[in-house]
Amino acid sequence: MKGLVFTELLEYVEENFGFDVADKIIEEAKLANNGSFTQAGNYPFEELLRLVSALSKELNIEIPKLLEIFGEYMFSRLISLNPQLKENFSSSLDLISRVDDIIHPEVQKLYPGADLPKFNLVHRSENKIVIDYISSKHLEPFAIGLMRGSAKNFNEKLIISQEKVEDITRFTLVLEK
Ligand code: HEM
Questions:
Q1: What is the C-alpha to C-alpha distance for residues 5 and 133, in angstroms, rounded to an integer?
Q2: In what order do the strands lie in the sheet with 158-165?
Q3: This prediction's pTM
Q4: Which of 16, 23, 42, 126 has its CA 20 to 30 A from that of 156?
Q5: For ligand 1, which residues put their CB under 6 angstroms from it?
Q6: Whether the Cβ atoms of residue 13 and residue 55 lie closer than 8 Å to each other
Q7: Is residue 71 within 8 Å of residue 105, measured between CB atoms?
Q8: How many separate helices (H) and strands (E) can be counted in the chain?
Q9: pLDDT tens, 68-125?
């Protein structure tokens, strides 16, 4: 997992819950590098899970909820770091439906070595998309947070539901009018 995800998570924790909480979860997660990450480096996914699990204990918030909140924050951070990524899109559904063929391939150039999920667009109409999420990481709540962050960025609201189709998660997103 890219160091960027770790540095953003720790910055989010410091800003919202203070340095003490950030230090505490780093200690509790027993990381190999004592919590020093570089944006461009790659670190075991397991370490991210340990950090999020320590944060969950500390704040008494369920892990999926934390991943969703962090995903929403992460979208605005990713776009402010890379504003060009949003330029060609006029709505959140527009952007989300092109994650796999435009956004993430660009991400791969910007952050070499990124281990990205696969998204397959199943259906697209003006106010609705159906998209399959395929990843062994199973970060569904993080994906939902990113989608919510995208909607917020375009001043829109999305109704998001999900269902399991074997090992694939099928998301249905409907634009709230
Ligand atoms: C709403 C749109 C997006 C969705 C639904 C989405 C979804 C995801 C998910 C679920 C992951 C976790 C990895 C996995 O599940 O296997 C991920 C990773 C990532 N995404 Fe996206 N993403 C979106 C937009 C973006 C944008 C705009 C950027 C801009 C830079 C971005 C950059 C990244 C990066 C850097 C990673 C980490 C890769 C790694 O750790 O190796 N994503 N994305």
A1: 19
A2: 118-125, 128-134, 168-175, 158-165
A3: 0.96
A4: 16
A5: 1-2, 4-5, 78-79, 82, 85, 96, 99, 103-104, 107, 111, 114-117, 135, 137, 139, 142-143, 146-147, 150
A6: yes
A7: no
A8: 7, 4
A9: 999 999 999 999 999 999 999 999 999 999 999 999 999 999 999 999 999 999 999 9
